[in-house]
Amino acid sequence: MQKPNAKAKTQINKKHSLPTAFNVFDEARSLGEHTDLIIRANDREFQVHKIILCGCSPYFRVLFSANWTRIPEHFYDIPGMSRNIMSLIIQYAYTGSVFITEENVLELLVAADQFLVSGLVDACCQFLESRLCPENCIGICMFTEDFHSCSKLRHKAKLYILQHFEEVLQVSEEFLELSLEQLEEIIDKDELNVKQEEVVFEAVLHWIDHAPESRRKHIAMLLPKVRMGLMTSDYFINNVKSNALVMENEACMPLIINAMKALFEFDMDLHGPISLELIHQLTRPRLPSAILLAIGGWSNGSPSNVIEAYDANTDRWVNVTLEDERPRAYHGTAVLDEFVYCVGGYDSVEYFNSVRKLNLITQTWHEVSNVVSQQVTLILVRTFTRDLVMNIMWIIFVCVWQVYICGGFTGTECLFSAESFNPDTNQWTLIAPMRSRRSGVGVIAYGDLVYAVGGFDGASRLRSAETYNPLTNIWCDIASMYNPRSNFGIEVVDDQLFAVGGFNGFSTTSDAECYDKKTNEWFDANEMTVFRSALNCCVISGLPNMAQYAAQRDAVQTQDESDSE
């Protein structure tokens, strides 16, 4: 197994605050006073107090109560145990503190599990979890299979493999050592995070090629786990159907025929009912790695508490509204860990200075400390004063944070001016003005550029969009949206920029569309179920319950189940 992390240093576990009596016992142990047991490990003897070992380990408690009379001269020999590891176990028993390093963590975990020292097992698991990476996640997952006490770490490692599958393929030598059953389990999961299903097929070929003579027959077992109906037709014909391993295995022929049927159905009706896309296992979309949340907004003349989640892999919106939340519009949102923070806003009666957070795992709202009124004004100023739109952008080349303010409304005219803030100098600087006046504009960092999209120029809602390059201080026009809009939600998901909802000059809209910077093209996305403007969007990822925010994959039967009825 690969080491947890080449850069890992040491971790000290100090979870337990032990009373002074234990410190006295530890000092007595070091002096050899009042000890009643000698433990021998790899020819080294440790004088200890039985009661201390019993206090930290059920293993020793049972051993001493049942077998103590048969242990001669109060000696207990532990064969095969490293003297250094035994020393750490004893140190932990007396002090509750131990150094865990990348060099000792695996051996220490084995010993802690053997002696049922649960606190030390947990500390080792936390150490390994904090150092999960593409190089070692498979090894950690396989290593913990024999330890019931490491089930949480094993689950985290499996989740890491699924979420970082493409990175794991590139760097993990242990991927090639997976068993057939282990590989089947991984590629069969809805949670497997791949941008294209072609990656899964290439992974299967890579695994087989490591031991072709013994593994080539397994293509018939692995191919059904590859969702061939999600591939492009060209790739399927040129790389799967014509693959030598597939062609020589007769058991693959029915799979290829079914895949061709699935591809044909998929191509013929891209926007058909959900059954056409999800009913067949070969076209069952995997869960997205990230979900776009559209929160609140202004709908039908009043604020809304609606929360919709966009699943890019199925192009569907899922209503995840919690009815006990207060409606609000013109608010801000931010994501931190498993929480979405909703800041400020307006409910047609009052302006909020409150901050609410949504626990995405328990799906419950909680009140947190209020912000001061000036900060609320900054959020609300988007609509009611200068219409400031702020986005924090990481400038890769100079490695500093910058805050950008673009456009707005003075009360008499829409602005095309823009400014940037440098936190190191605590200064605002005028940058090149935008090419169009924009109020209610959507601004976001996308790649290395600042994007200003849509808005209102004082005469009409805009379809146009432009980008700002911080290195050249130049704005450039890009392709226009399909739909004009202002006061809409904007976010980046799966390396595509989404514009959601807003006001089109005549009515509030539910339209959504996305922009691909590689092709400079906009594409229609499925519309929300609720018309709204003044909403706010954010992106969530890496949650253990991502399926709750995605289109239901089990809402319909698979084709095989339907055929059997």
From TrEMBL:
It comes from the Eukaryota. Residues 173-200 form a coiled coil. Residues 35-102 form the BTB domain. The keyword Repeat applies. SMART domains: BACK, BTB, Kelch. Keywords: Coiled coil, Kelch repeat, Repeat. PROSITE patterns: BTB. SUPFAM superfamilies: Kelch motif, POZ domain. PANTHER family: KELCH PROTEIN (PTHR24412), KELCH-LIKE PROTEIN 10 (PTHR24412:SF172). This is Kelch-like protein 10. It comes from Sinocyclocheilus anshuiensis.
